Amino acid sequence: MPREFEWQEETLGAEDFYRGDIEDLLQDGAWQEGFNEWVEYTTLDEEHVDSINDQRLFQAFDFYWDPSEDRLRFDAPRVPDEWQQEHPIESRDSITRSLIAGELADLGHAVLEVLEGYLDRNDEDSDYGWGADTYGTRDE
């Protein structure tokens, strides 16, 4: 279940939050497009990105459909308290867990924007298969 999600009557029965469908879109290119955009402006260097990858934080993102707000959302992974001890890097004095957390949130927003673009294309008869014809209404 998403981290900051509150169950409401209309969310009962929607436990998967369309994660499988969103995962398909991510694999179809949304993740790579968002990641490439993020890499262009992130303040993290290659060593930091490698360290985050080693920690498997990129794989820990959770993208889902929030039925109570009828929109896509994401939870960025939490940076472990012991991150700097487990993954020392030369420039770690200049980087903090909060900076990394902020950069991961920026990555999540970049990928979310790409996902929204994929979904918007569905409104123009795209092949992504996300919409009322596939899922009907969300009144569960």
TrEMBL record:
Residues 9-126 form the DUF7992 domain. Pfam families: DUF7992. This is DUF7992 domain-containing protein.
